[in-house]
Design a protein that fits this description.
By secondary structure, this protein is α/β, with parallel strands linked by helices. The protein has 4 helices and 7 strands. It binds adenosine-5'-diphosphate (ADP) and magnesium ion.
């Protein structure tokens, strides 16, 4: 478990993980699941990650748009999904996410529990827990072999 005290610490965590994933994401799409309740800091994590990869503009929450894709000049293509409002897992299938997996990129997914099939395709699973004003973050590989 990592203690993540505030918004800027959450961005910094996103930035560090983004830096680690940027290399392998040039080979194929890495899938990162972001679990945690509303207001946990999932979008904040993504903002920090995108900033670290050189993105300078506003990063909106894709709650209503479902997906936002970022083409970074010197980084992998990053797709940010928020499945909170997904009514049916098939809606994600229509986006064609499985077809992206062979291409370079990063797929960052909030509310991944809406689509059970995602858990089996994840490269990194992040759980954010709200504890008072701060957050506890658990990072695991899908097999649960490494915890930080
Ligand atoms: P989510 O996407 O999980 O719903 P957001 O990223 O939108 O959550 O963050 C919700 C609020 O929590 C924002 O005001 C953000 O600044 C704040 N926040 C993010 N990370 C932390 C943290 N580690 N500790 C305290 N507040 C945080
Ligand atoms: Mg969010």
């Amino acid at each position: 478990m990592l203690s993540v005290a505030d918004d800027s610490a959450m961005r910094a965590l996103g930035a560090r993980i983004g830096a680690v994933l940027a290399g392998p994401a040039r080979e194929r799409t890495l899938v990162v699941l972001l679990h945690g309740p509303l207001g946990a800091g999932k979008t904040t994590f993504v903002r920090g990650l995108l900033q670290a990869l050189g993105y300078r503009d506003r990063v909106p929450s894709p709650t209503y748009t479902l997906a936002e894709t970022y083409a970074l000049p010197h980084g992998p293509r990053v797709t940010h999904l928020d499945l909170y409002r997904l009514a049916d897992p098939d809606e994600l299938e229509f986006l064609g996410w499985r077809d992206w997996l062979g291409d370079p990129g990063l797929l960052l997914i909030e509310w991944p529990d809406r689509v059970p099939a995602l858990e089996g395709r994840a490269d990194l699973v992040i759980h954010i827990e709200v504890t008072g004003d701060s957050r506890q973050v658990a990072i695991a590989d899908p097999a649960g072999l490494t915890h930080a």
